[in-house]
Design goal:
Largest sheet: 2 strands, antiparallel
Distance between the termini: 6 Å
Helix content: 55-70%
Strand content: under 5%
Structural class: mainly alpha
Radius of gyration: 25 Å
Order of helices and strands: EHHHHHHHHHHHEEHHHHHHHHHHHHE
Number of strands: 4
Shape: globular
Length: 505
């Protein structure tokens, strides 16, 4: 099965929500109608209700999570694992003890099929934040012997412990034993990032385990990482087997250079991997910066480019978009000095969705400075949106137009743009659900559902408690429930809930 994942917005940390009576009503309405939605959305709605309802009634919030977890029993096994992982990750922020308990009922608590963090990763992160290292180690022991091992969680606990703490060796020894039972790429990455912190004999044992396993693995078709782009904007698709071999080679070159050189001389795969450029491993001295909740006005490849594409020309299509984006960026930078020339260059861009995003970005920028210019740009933005054929590509510029209009008190224009965004979000969701090649990813990560969320959240931010009027014509039960939850989120002053978007065909 082919899978393509693109980042829409980074996951945001949770802040304390503020009680709001209108939000409370919206949540209760969503809860009352959640049973009419598709099974996945029903489960996801219960999960999000639990996340938000804690400010009104924490026991009821936990009960929503329990209902969601129980409802996963009606899903297929693969989807059940994904849904349970999402539920426990979110539950951990409401009740860490309850989340740890729910891990016991999971067949695969360490599997990350969607998103970037598994259920056990999240529980472990929160325990580490409380310096409960023994409890975190105990939680890792809840993983069934036949299940995927939580190598990322183990690495996080390792990094959090003091350099000379004997529990580091114990963690790595257990991880090595788990790898020997069920080899996973995450252990090779864990070893590559931390072998210098290990006693030599422990590093050698781990390296031997990796070498014995990886050299007999067969290559996996369509197993690529496409997160980087070269200087010409072309996406680099790295074969993950080559990356794993490169991790192994670098560790071997540090532990046993002679063996590494001999292996590279006799094995073409190792020779190729030995020159692979790798990102610097993260250690306890260099940890990732926390996510920021700043609004992201970046331009994203149209979903029409990503959806239903042939994996063989993905690199070229994304590369073409990236090159066009460079031209758009240059045109936008010109706007302060020469707005007409900037608009002219934007008009030459090859993608209608990119044109609309760029013009709407200018509208948001200039509207607060000059009402007449802002109004003109908003009109141009809405005209540009009308040229975009795929509904999935029109939501973002419409929301930008609405935001720009409200900055200069053009409430009617903003409302018009929001109404169109609601309609278009629904069309995109229906298309994604009924397309010839339906998106088989968890609906939580569907691009169209992300747009529904963003539209509802933006509407509530702009029009406050009047925003639910936008939902009067929403007939799809899934959309109705999800958008009510997101409007409640905005009214409670919770950060926007948006993260990765996934396509699985």
């Amino acid at each position: 099965m082919r899978r393509i994942t693109g980042l829409l917005l980074s996951s945001l940390c949770c802040f304390a929500a503020e009680p709001n009576e209108k939000a409370h009503k919206l949540l209760d309405e969503a809860a009352a109608t959640a049973g009419s939605t598709t099974l996945e959305v029903h489960i996801l709605a219960l999960m999000h209700l639990g996340k938000l309802y804690q400010v009104y009634d924490k026991p009821k919030a936990v009960d929503y999570f329990r209902q969601a977890f129980a409802a996963t029993s009606s899903s297929g096994e693969d989807m059940k694992n994904i849904l349970q992982g999402e539920i426990v990750k979110n539950l951990a922020d409401v009740s860490l003890p309850e989340a740890a308990e729910q891990l016991r009922g999971m067949a695969e608590p360490a599997t990350t099929l969607e998103g970037n963090t598994s259920a056990i990763d999240r529980v472990t992160q929160l325990l580490i934040a409380k310096s409960e290292f023994d409890k975190a180690t105990e939680v890792m022991g809840l993983v069934p012997a036949a299940a995927a091992y939580p190598f990322r969680a183990a690495g996080s606990v390792f990094d959090a412990l003091p350099n000379n703490d004997p529990r580091r060796v114990l963690i790595f020894t257990r991880a090595t034993a788990a790898y020997q039972r069920r080899p996973e790429r995450e252990f090779t990455e864990m070893l590559h990032a931390r072998w210098r912190k290990l006693p030599r004999e422990v590093a050698e044992a781990a390296l031997n385990a990796v070498a014995n396993a990886i050299l007999v693995k067969k290559d996996q078709n369509f197993s690529f990482n496409g997160d980087e782009a070269d200087d010409n904007g072309k996406m680099i698709l790295k074969n993950l087997r080559t990356v794993e071999l490169a991790w192994m080679y670098q560790v071997m070159n540090g532990v046993d250079p002679k063996r590494a050189q001999e292996l590279a001389a006799t094995n073409q795969e190792i020779k190729t991997a030995s020159v692979e450029k790798l990102k610097e491993p993260k250690t306890e001295e260099k940890k990732a910066e926390p996510s920021k909740d700043d609004e992201d006005d970046g331009m994203y490849p149209p979903l029409s480019i990503l959806r239903g594409i042939d994996i063989d020309n993905l690199s070229d299509r994304i590369g073409q978009w990236a090159l066009a984006e460079k031209k758009a960026t240059a045109a936008l930078e010109l706007a302060e000095k020469d707005l007409p020339q900037s608009l002219s260059r934007i008009g030459d861009l090859p993608y209608p969705a990119m044109k609309a995003q760029a013009i709407c970005g200018l509208a948001k920028k200039f509207a607060p400075k000059d009402q007449a210019t802002g109004k003109s740009l908003i009109d141009k933005c809405l005209d540009a949106v009308s040229d975009v054929k795929d509904p999935a590509d029109t939501g973002t510029p419409l929301l930008s137009a609405a935001q720009a209009a409200m900055t200069i008190k053009l409430r009617d224009r903003a409302w018009e743009a929001m109404q169109k965004a609601v309609v278009i979000s629904g069309e995109a969701y229906v298309a994604e659900a009924n397309a010839e090649k339906v998106n088989k990813a968890l609906r939580e990560y569907w691009p169209s559902l992300q747009m529904c969320r963003l539209t509802a959240y933006t509407g509530a931010k702009l029009f406050a408690e009047e925003a639910d009027t936008l939902l009067r014509d929403v007939r799809d039960p899934d959309m109705s429930v999800i958008m009510r939850i997101e409007m409640a989120r905005a009214l409670m002053k919770e950060p926007q809930y948006a993260h990765s978007m996934s396509f699985r065909f």
